[in-house]
Specification:
572 residues; five-stranded mixed beta sheet; 17% strand; disordered N terminus
């Protein structure tokens, strides 16, 4: 995951798409029996599912989408070699076969991955899906005019770094072989035990070359999933999906595809969406949202109403909000100063600033608190619930600042309850008790991103966040702590500018593992090892609370996306 373009888009996705647009919330692993208020809770086929969103489903082309696990609405149209397991909770964080018969067969060192397609796979026009179509779909994602998707393959595939896509280079990628219509083989330039996770990305969607219309393909992409696009207006603001009659449950046990029609309406204010879902009048009774959470005020209102509370679900997506230090900037070049701030932080006040304990969980580890990431609970600088000012003062004295220090905390002015003024102020108040005077530097969101993602301008002390491309420690730790991913003349995300040979070597060693449970344990141990350097202060992991219409049934929320899986929803 060395590509700066990967990470640049990743942050945008984390704050807009992955954290909210991967699905619609309804209920989480512990309360996943929400079935709406109608009498019969058994899901049946038929009816229309309405989706009420703030953000349009732009760039509805599998090459251009950047999703986690294939996305939510996109996964109704685009099938991939593998997909996320469509189950509640931790079970949903597993990768399972989709178009392929298994999750992939690696060679001994995980540099070659082979897949066999299931028999009987068809597009919406009844033609057969072939391995050549998947190869072509991947190749077109390299075209500059179709950029935007997760470009790991540019970094992972042998000889792919400078490939410009099939429109300019008809030869294609020699690193992808299709010896027959059902077999596809990938040759990687380094071991990648997590290749099955990557194969869930929409770039692995089959695209028939004869039906490729370039940048216009998003208007009517050829469906390999249970639904086809019948209307796409204003770049995804309004999408209408209807059944693909050639899709079969015989080849797809993951997607339930209960509704006959999916009607996606975007460009709505978040308060309007939640009000419409709350009222559940007319078509809104069978509506969900794939990008709008309940805010603190809305949640308080809903919690006091039993009927509404029964329609609110809880989900967790792999995501961490944290304080970042640049150790090349004084006084943060002194580890004791970084440790002092770690002790002084009042996580209770930060959680309150993020919306309260219903919407945020205090974090002491960089990895999210889920098994699939390799979560290993540790608290290296125990601050308690409200901060340890005495310990912080002691460390400052040892660092040569017996009278305290004055520092500047950079944050965004965006009202995201993550890197925004509310969080910054909570930190400012806590650190004051430890003799640390914090001046706040609030920047408009674009200026903030430009400043913190440039090695040349990165401040010493700022708010940041990171989310998962898939539920594993790899895409979580490597971009932030692998020294080989430091980008000096572009978008940099190794905020601590860490280039520790032992850390880099362990990342490489874990990447070779195809036993993902064993890899998870190693990621957890590495998280703790890196944490000892106090380059970040984990603050909290977000919790997603979302409302569904009163007649929505069969709610499934996995730990992969943290939000309702639209492919499981029924309206009858």
């Amino acid at each position: 995951m060395r590509q700066p373009s990967v990470i640049a888009r990743r942050v945008a996705v984390a704050s807009v798409s992955l954290a909210v647009a991967a699905g619609a919330a309804a209920c989480g692993p512990k309360d996943n029996d929400a079935k709406g208020s109608s009498g019969d809770s058994t899901p049946h086929k038929g009816g229309t599912l309405t989706v009420l969103n703030s953000n349009p489903q732009e760039d509805f082309d599998p090459a251009r989408l950047y999703t986690s696990g294939g996305g939510n609405v996109p996964s109704l149209v685009f099938r991939t070699l593998t997909t996320r397991n469509r189950e509640n909770g931790a079970a949903g964080a597993k990768v399972v076969p989709d178009l392929a018969t298994d999750t992939g067969r690696p060679n001994k060192d995980a540099t070659v991955w082979t897949y066999t397609l299931k028999k009987g796979l068809k597009y919406e026009d009844g033609t057969a899906i072939t391995s050549a179509d998947i190869k072509y779909g991947i190749e077109r994602s390299f075209a500059p005019e179709l950029s935007g998707g997760a470009p790991y393959l540019r970094d992972w595939l042998v000889g792919a770094a400078d490939y410009q896509g099939p429109y300019k280079d008809k030869k294609g990628l020699s690193a992808i072989e299709t010896p027959d219509s059902r077999t596809i083989v990938f040759h990687l330039d380094k071991p990648e035990g997590e290749f099955p996770y990557l194969a869930t990305q929409t770039q692995f969607t089959p695209v028939p070359q004869g039906k490729d219309t370039g940048t216009k393909y998003e208007q009517h992409p050829i469906s390999s999933g249970p639904y086809k696009v019948v209307s796409n207006q204003n770049d995804g603001e309004t999408l209408v999906l209807e059944r693909n009659k050639y899709w079969s449950t015989a080849t797809d046990s993951e997607r339930k595809a209960y509704p006959d029609k999916i009607d996606v309406k975007s460009g709505l204010d978040s308060s309007v969406i939640n009000q419409r879902l709350s009222s559940s009048q007319g078509a809104d009774a069978t509506a969900v949202t794939t990008d709008t959470n309940l805010g603190p005020a809305e949640l308080a209102k809903v919690t006091g109403d039993k009927e509404l509370a029964a329609r609110v679900g809880t989900g967790h997506f792999g995501y961490t909000n944290y304080i970042a230090f640049n150790p090349t900037v004084a006084p943060f070049d002194n580890v004791k100063v970084r440790q002092a701030i770690s002790y002084a932080v009042d996580r209770s006040s930060v959680v309150n600033a993020a919306g309260g304990s219903s919407l945020a969980e205090a974090a002491t580890t960089f990895l999210p608190n889920q098994k699939s990431f390799g979560y290993d609970p540790y608290d290296l600088f125990p601050a308690g619930a409200s901060g340890n000012a005495a310990k912080a003062k002691e460390l400052l004295k040892e660092a040569g600042y017996p009278k305290g220090i004055t520092v500047t905390l950079t944050h965004s002015n965006d009202k995201d309850f993550e890197t925004s003024p509310e969080i910054a102020t909570a930190i400012q108040d806590a650190l004051k008790k430890a003799g640390i005077t914090v001046k706040l530097q609030g920047l408009e969101i674009n200026d903030y991103k430009d400043k913190i993602h440039s090695v040349k301008t990165e401040p010493g002390f700022f708010l940041a966040h990171w989310g998962a491309d898939w539920p594993s420690g790899g895409p979580f730790l490597a971009p932030i702590f692998d020294g080989r991913q430091i980008v000096k003349d572009g978008a940099n995300f190794n905020t601590g500018l860490l280039n520790d040979k032992s850390v880099n070597a362990e990342i490489d060693a874990i990447n070779k593992l195809t036993n993902l449970d064993e890899a998870a344990k190693r990621w957890g141990a590495l998280d703790k090892k890196i944490g000892e350097q106090a380059l970040t202060v984990p603050l909290f992991h977000p919790v997603y609370k979302r409302l569904v219409g009163k007649d929505i049934k069969n709610v499934v929320i996995s730990d992969w996306t943290g939000v309702l899986d639209i492919s499981q929803v029924a309206v009858k």
